[in-house]
Design brief:
- By secondary structure, this protein is an alpha/beta fold.
- The protein has a single domain (16-116), classed as STAS domain (Transcription Regulator spoIIAA).
- It contains three helices and five strands, in the order ββαβαβαβ.
- The protein has helices spanning 41-48, 71-87, 98-107, and strands at 16-24, 27-36, 58-69, 90-94, 114-116.
- Strand 4 (90-94), helix 3 and strand 5 form a beta-alpha-beta unit.
- Helix 1 (41-48) packs parallel to helix 2 (71-87).
- The chain is globular and about 30 Å long.
- The N and C termini lie far apart (45 Å).
- The relative contact order is 0.16.
């Protein structure tokens, strides 16, 4: 018996929704829902790229609605983190779902990326 989620039928595109909301001139919230995998991670990367290019800009990524995260989705988050190291922007994860948190812990990424249990818990 497998503990992995069933492989989605690629004839039906696995949905992902990425919404960007700017809450202040130097702070953005990116909310992701659905599967974050090799077929959808580029949507998140496309949303993050322009936000991470500004020194001092804080980007919060709400992952509470992500129901599946594979290595491509994880790579997208790591790439975003590496970009912040170059540009001076700040990246933090908000309320990673249980599935996401498990992947972050298994890979050790939870020790690199800042993560907060809620938007209110994230520093201003």
């Amino acid at each position: 018996m497998s503990t992995h989620p069933p492989t989605p039928d690629r004839r039906q595109a696995t949905p992902v929704d990425v919404q960007v909301r700017t809450s202040a001139p130097d702070r953005s919230l990116v909310t992701v829902t659905g599967y974050l995998d090799r077929h959808t991670a580029h949507h998140l990367a496309d949303a993050l790229q322009p936000l991470l290019g500004r020194d001092g800009h804080t980007v919060l990524v709400d992952l509470s609605g992500v129901t599946f995260l594979d290595s491509t989705g994880l790579t997208c988050l790591i790439t975003a983190y590496r970009t912040t190291r170059i540009t001076g922007a700040r990246l933090a994860l908000i309320a990673p779902s249980q599935q996401v948190q498990k992947m972050l812990q298994l890979t050790g990424v939870d020790r690199v990326l800042d993560s907060y249990p809620s938007l209110d818990a994230a520093p201003p």
